[in-house]
Structures are given as structure tokens and as C-alpha cells.
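Entry type: protein chain
Record version: 2
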Amino acid sequence: MLLAETIKGKRLVEWQSQKHGFEDRTKQEASFIDYFQQQVDIKDQTTSKSNYSIWISAQKHLLVYCGKHDLNFEELDKDWLDGFKYTNLNHGESKEYDYWAKTKHLSIH
């Protein structure tokens, strides 16, 4: 019960902060790469093999595009997504739209 009250309190503070225009910097500074990995792990358990393989490929392309840089949510904007899409299109990937779509989908959540 204490855990539920703690979570409720945290969510209430987040809601109040958003209501009054305060930004939650911790979410913006969180690693998109780590978040993407969590989603890939979930997809491994919840989707078909073919869909999971697209997530794995998208992750590989994401890591190549980022290099050694750990991308956070604050850096993930339209220009970044367009660059990612352009790079995959120029490499002639047959699934480039799928990779871009998976990355874009997670970036807006």
C-alpha cells in the first residue's frame, strides 16, 4: 500500500508540474537508446518473429547512426529523425521505412 501511495504522489507532482508549465528534465535527459532496448525486449516476448526482426534491425541502424553517442529524448527531434530517415534511404535499405517508423513511433511516446 505504501508503494502505491508513493507512486500516486509522484504522478500527482508530475501532473501538477506539467499543468503549470514546468518541464520534467529527467525524462528529457533519459536515454532513448536504453528505452529502445526495453521496447525491443518487450517485442521479443509479444510479437511475431518477423516483426521482432524488424525491431532488431531498426535498433542496429539506430546504433550505427548514433555511433558511440548515447542519444537522449531531448536530442530526438524532427531534424534528427529526418537525418536518420535520409541516411537509411540513401543506403538502399529495403526496410528503411520500417526502421524509421519504429524509431519515430517510440520518439513520440
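Comment: The chain has a mean pLDDT of 75.
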